[in-house]
């Protein structure tokens, strides 16, 4: 079990590296003159928000339209080829010279990241026992989250410089593309999900049939709840993580200090999943999500008011820990809500709404930051996370220790 999850998680390492490097290469993209931090027009392509939006737009389409591939062709094959896809796209992006082309290839990479996000959640949930699902999802996230301090460290070392005529941020991106090579070693000996084998549907109408099942009496309440949840949670999660260096610069930190502080904050990312592993299956996941949402809201408001470097870093660490633990809890939670035969399609559909709202989060953050500063930004984040807590606390079912459904009961 540990070997299988470790292999899957190693693939997830590249996924999270690619996802989170957005924040850490931001100042390099701005410094090279390709993007600006806050464009005068909300949807200007030269605004850094367009780069953030391009990646999330690809993930939205990947999770919404292509997640059924995992239910149709299997977890192992989808895991492999989605990793190859976004690794190749990220490599191409690293050599592009204009905002338009960088955004295009970031969008293409996002397609593969979106498919792999839901595949890994389904994969790990299905091979884990009912009393250990939270633990193994958290373990998987721990391995993946080790990528974040690596991305931040590489950015700190490389982004301020240029090598052989290429800006340092481009080398940070190239490291993320190495997953396309590593996957051929990771997939060897990786088992297919036996739950998927037992429940797979080979009908040509599979994707449409799966979508219809989401609105049956058993699942429609869960589906509506998770759509609203994902629309909101991404404001709190990516509203901070995709903009850390820029927020620090807004607090007055220099270019180098912003990268240095970002690295210090990023170091604690893997600790969130370690905490989650200790309590994942003993504390109801719905209540983990509720209390962590409130913690993110409170820490964000304190971060916005901080001015001393030590206090800024401390509050950044608090948000980061809460976000990482929150991610473990809800990734396990939403995969448990649906039967195996439609799990990837269902998780892909509800999770796609987080990618959809993420397309616009960058533009919203940039506009609010320009007019109201970091206090305004974190007020928006706090409101979103308060609504998340109310939603899951009021309507979320309990899932800990229950067997996964393979199919809906007749």
Overview of the molecule:
- With 410 residues, the protein is an all-alpha fold.
- The chain has one domain (2-187, 202-395): MFS general substrate transporter like domains (Growth Hormone, Chain: A, Up-down Bundle), CATH 1.20.1250.20.
- It is 76% helix and 1% strand.
- It contains 19 helices and two strands.
- It has a two-stranded antiparallel sheet.
- Helix 1 runs antiparallel to helix 9 (168-176), helix 8 packs antiparallel against helix 15 and helix 17 (285-305) packs antiparallel against helix 18 (309-336).
- The radius of gyration is 20 Å and the shape is globular.
- The mean pLDDT is 84.
State the gist of this model.
This protein has 410 residues and is mainly α. The protein is built from 19 helices and 2 strands.
List the helices and strands and how they pair.
Elements: H1 2-24, H2 26-31, H3 48-65, H4 68-73, H5 75-93, H6 99-127, H7 133-145, H8 147-158, E1 162-163, E2 166-167, H9 168-176, H10 179-186, H11 194-199, H12 206-213, H13 220-241, H14 244-250, H15 255-267, H16 271-279, H17 285-305, H18 309-336, H19 343-395
Antiparallel strand pairs: 1-2
Helix pairs in contact: 1-5, 1-6, 1-7, 1-8, 1-9, 1-10, 3-6, 3-19, 5-6, 5-9, 5-10, 6-7, 6-19, 7-16, 7-18, 8-9, 8-15, 13-18, 13-19, 14-15, 15-18, 16-18, 17-18, 17-19
